Amino acid sequence: MSSNTLKGVIFDMDGVLVDSERLYMRFWQEACAAFGFELTQEMALSLRSNSPETAIPKFLAWFGESADYHEIRGLRRKLMADFIDRNGVKLKPGAAETVDYLKQKGIKIALATASPVKRAKHYLEPHGLFDQFDSVVSGASIARSKPAPDIYLTAAGELGLSPYECIAVEDSPAGVISAKTAGCFTVMVPDLTQPEEEILPNIDFLAHDLNDLQKLV
User: Fold this and answer.
1) Nearest 5°: phi and psi at 24?
2) Which residue among 51, 101, 114, 210 is the one 20 to 30 A from 124 at the CA level?
3) Which string of DSSP letters, residue by residue, matches 12-35?
4) How far, in Å, CA of 214 to CA of 217, rounded?
């Protein structure tokens, strides 16, 4: 992407800006165990960026009709919230520096997260990042969640830009497909897993960490 084309950067949050995906995986597994279900690491990873609409069929396939997704998720949320209230959540390497770099360059930035806005604020505000975003779009307000392109189309629109003028920064396969389908220049910063071969055609730039993003701008 040329500097003349680039006008905005849209970030996913979990696993991209904050080191929360490990916590999601840990507490999904703990919550399932409390209800007598064994959630493998592979299962937990497949829940990334999923809304209830896409996660519930997975739970039913894995554990049968006796698995109450909403009840298990409620416990997962409580366990994770209690942990973060005590310990906070760390930023990913280069997050603060890259946001500051983009702001200095006058590039518009948006957040496109599956998390509610209140949670995004809770995670990012202690690091002074939440108010840096020109727009915050939550999957809770979007009809179709990732891997549908809706959240990136909305975020670009709120920046007053075309998706083709935006870089999208993602860590999960569902997020990568969402961003690429929307028309964004798609950057993947792998978090818990490296991209599988079938996802590679959707990635325009594979970064080691967020500091690599500065090379594109």
Assistant:
1) -55, -45
2) 51
3) --BTTTBS-HHHHHHHHHHHHHHT
4) 5
The Cα 198–Cα 171 span in angstroms is 15
- As a CATH number, domain 8-19+89-216 is 3.40.50.1000
Please tell me the distance from the alpha carbon of residue 102 to that of residue 64, in angstroms, as a whole number.
47
* Cβ neighbours around 193 below 10 Å, total: 15
- Residue 217 contacts residue 101 (beta carbons within 8 Å): yes
Candidates 74, 76, 47, 49; CA nearest to 62 is 47
Per-residue pLDDT of the chain (217 residues; tens, 9 = 90+): 655 689 999 999 999 999 998 999 999 999 999 999 999 999 998 887 677 888 999 999 999 998 999 999 999 999 999 999 999 999 999 999 999 999 999 999 999 998 899 999 999 999 999 999 999 999 888 988 888 999 999 999 999 999 999 999 999 998 999 999 999 999 999 988 889 999 999 999 999 999 999 988 8
